[in-house]
Amino acid sequence: MKICIVLLSVLMSGIVFSQQGDSLNTKNPRFIVKMTHGMANSVVFDFTRSQWDKMTPGFEIPDSLTTGFNGVEIKDNIHTTSSNQYYLFSFSLINGAAKQPGRKFLATTTFHLGYGPELRAENRWYHEDREIIDTLTSSQNGQEYYVYGNRNQTIAKRYTSKSIVFGVGEHIATNPNRLFQFETGFDLLCMLSIVSEVRASYLDSYLLEGLPNEGQGYAYPQPLLNETKAQTFSNKLTSGVIMRVPLEMSFKLSRKSPVASRMRLGAELNPGLATVFTGGLITTNFNITGGMNFRFAF
Asked: 3-state class of 123 per DSSP?
């Protein structure tokens, strides 16, 4: 909703300027506003075992799972990712706006403010104990059936965090008077989570496997064990830094209209590095975003 309001404000500004066509023909643009809706690949990060425990106080892990069964060790399965959608508002100052009419390039200092991506991390402790508990013999053909008791215990902790991004960049673009324009530069963005929580769940189940098919006259008592519990915790905030190189191609909406000639639609690709800080643990990985944008110079 906030993004729609900002975009509506930009369009309304264009309508206001459209009432002043003569002044737009003579006045040099000094600022550029841009709205971007984009997609991002995963931002990978991690928590240590002790950090997971601190984020879920009071969530007790049963001793049976902590120590394991029959000497089998607990398995950790860590998965981290981020949502692939973000919104970014950019406000640019045109460097040397008074001298711009004689230049064949456009240099800007850009300030960014946006929403997203959502960070997600999950750690899963899984343990399975499977053993033969009985042997059944068919009275018809003498075939033996092994009955297995399978106890499965799983603990999952899932971290989710909504975030905002803000930062600054220096950009340079080709001649803004041409229909098509290429732009690149360097951006430094800070990422800060604003709402975060951890949901912890525990499942303890016991199943019987290997029973004969129905109709063979065999039945086996099946114990009922399916214990589940879950809790949700408000939790710590994460932060990060994104360094990227924007690569963008845009085109004018018009060559003649004093208003539409200052509007552009563009497509962008932003490769870079993303670093996430989680309580003393620093994770850096390659990150790339891309999307569509709309801009207006005034």
From this structure: strand
Neighbours of 162 (CB within 10 A): 15
Report d(CA 167, CA 114) in Å as an integer: 9
Of the candidates 161, 8, 165, which has an alpha carbon nearest to the alpha carbon of residue 86?
165
C-beta separation of 146 from 210 below 8 A:
yes
Contacts of 12 (CB under 8 A, 6+ apart): none
CB 148 within 8 A of CB 133: yes
- For the segment 99-141, what is each residue's pLDDT rounded down to a tens digit? 888 789 999 999 999 997 788 888 887 777 888 888 888 778 8
Question: Hunting for tokens 């009071």 — which residue is that?
Answer: 58
What pLDDT, on a 0 to 100 scale, did the predictor assign at position 214? 54
Closest CA relative to residue 112, chosen from 272, 254, 286, 243: 243
Rounded CA separation 225/120 (Å): 31
**pLDDT at 2 exceeding the cut of 50:** no
**Which tokens belong to 208?**
């019987």
Mean pLDDT over each residue of the chain, to the nearest integer = 81
Distance CA 170, CA 160 (A): 32
Mean pLDDT value across residues 55-79: 60
Bin 158: left if φ > 0, else alpha if -120 < ψ < 50, else beta. Answer: beta
Task: Centre a 10 Å sphere on the Cβ of residue 206 and count the other Cβ atoms it contains.
Answer: 16
- How many residues does this entry show for the chain? 298
pLDDT over threshold 90, residue 292: yes
Q: Which of 115, 113, 119, 46 is nearest to 83 (CA)?
A: 119
pTM assigned to the model: 0.76
- Contact of 236 with 196, CB cutoff 8 Å: yes
State mean pLDDT over 268-277.
Answer: 94
R_g (Cα) of the chain, nearest Å: 30
